[in-house]
Specification:
mainly alpha, 3 helices
Length: about 80
Amino acid sequence: MRPSPQAFRQAVKRRAHNAGLRSTLRTAVKRVQKAIVAGDKTAAQSIFQESVAVIDRIADKKIIHKNKASRHKGRLSAQIKALSA
């Protein structure tokens, strides 16, 4: 069975919205990585705290799986901790 035209239009709108949220997620992760590469631990930690909120919000909306969100946060946190070593 084919979806109705209304369901199709709704799916297209939802897909565009989700793509925007995924882009926001990727940008948040890249901001933290950029601070890590620069070697600025304090800036990386503050940006990381902002990014955690973004990552969790997107995972709560089921745009990404909660385990993927946890993996992102864990890896970024480990990279920040490695700056001091």
